[in-house]
Amino acid sequence: MEQKKYEVIYEEEKTLIDLIKLFVKNRFYILKVTGFVFLLGMIAFFTYNKVKPLQMEQKFYLSYIDRMEEMEIGGVPTNPELLFKDNQFIDMFFEKDFIQSNFQGTKDSEKRAYVLSKLGMKVEKLKTDRFIYTLTTKGKTLEENKIWAEIYFETLNTYIEKQNRAKLDKEYQLLDKKAKQYKSNLQNIENTIRTLVTEEKAQASIGIINIVDEIREKNPGVFSEKDSYAVLYGEILSKKENLSQFLDFLDLNFEYRSSLIESKGKINFSIAFILSLSGGFLLGLILVLGKNYFKNINWE
């Protein structure tokens, strides 16, 4: 029994030694395979990293929407996710020298495809019913991503301002017109009251202390009209002031919730180096083993 045990151990040691000898004998072949695979891996790495964009992202939300709701302003809400379908929004990108110099084409579909190849948008609804947006940039370098992000936010800000001013400037003019009209009506009523006061003073008998109360009793319609216009005029002035404040801040329409960070980067050189080298070496060992296996098969 002991003799058999030693024989097994000897056979295993012999097999391991043969295997090591086999690898040593074919060391140059293994090195060639390793070098070839390593070279292919490095070429693939540099080619992939040159072609693949450096994807980055930045979160933000539309602060002007909050101001619009808080101040009860009937502005124009914007959905950044849908803006890429708006030709007017797309055309605004091509007012920038950086984009004009890197784009060749004239059709709207070509312009949209070019912008979408560099930018993307995701939206998420929070528990507070607010929406947070994530801008995705797909430039080749960090610097290019920064330029695209800067252009996007400038364009978005300008677009929102134009859309809202187109509507709210007209509303402000209408409020201003109403305010002037109510003010004029109030002045006319006050002039009427002054006339009534003058007439009442001339006709007043001795003992009348409060002439205004006397006139109010005799002319209730005049004072009622004055009170109504005073309320309307106050409401118009309040709306006008709110709208004026909202318009003053229309150049600040969003708030950043993160900086521009890498989301899907390029392959790390160290990882590519290790994978290519170890993969080539492992393939060389497998090929040597396979070659030796088929060599020892009796095909007869």
Provide structural commentary:
The chain is of the alpha+beta class and 300 residues long. Residues 1-12 have low confidence and may be disordered. It contains ten helices and five strands; from the N terminus they run ααβααααββαααββα. The relative contact order is 0.16. The protein is 69% helix and 10% strand. Strands 1, 2, 3, 4 and 5 form a five-stranded antiparallel beta sheet that branches. The chain has helices at residues 2-25, 27-51, 63-70, 87-93, 97-101, 108-118, 142-203, 211-218, 220-248, 269-295; strands at 54-61, 119-125, 131-139, 255-256, 261-264. Helix 2 packs antiparallel against helix 10, helix 4 packs across helix 6 (108-118) and helix 7 (142-203) packs antiparallel against helix 9. The chain is rod-shaped, with a radius of gyration of 41 Å.
Describe, in short, the structure shown.
By secondary structure, this protein is an alpha+beta fold. The chain has helices spanning 2-25, 27-51, 63-70, 87-93, 97-101, 108-118, 142-203, 211-218, 220-248, 269-295, and strands at 54-61, 119-125, 131-139, 255-256, 261-264. Strands 1, 2, 3, 4 and 5 form a five-stranded antiparallel beta sheet that branches.
How would the blueprint of this fold be written?
Elements: H1 2-25, H2 27-51, E1 54-61, H3 63-70, H4 87-93, H5 97-101, H6 108-118, E2 119-125, E3 131-139, H7 142-203, H8 211-218, H9 220-248, E4 255-256, E5 261-264, H10 269-295
Antiparallel strand pairs: 1-3, 1-4, 1-5, 2-3
Helix pairs in contact: 2-10, 4-6, 7-8, 7-9, 8-9
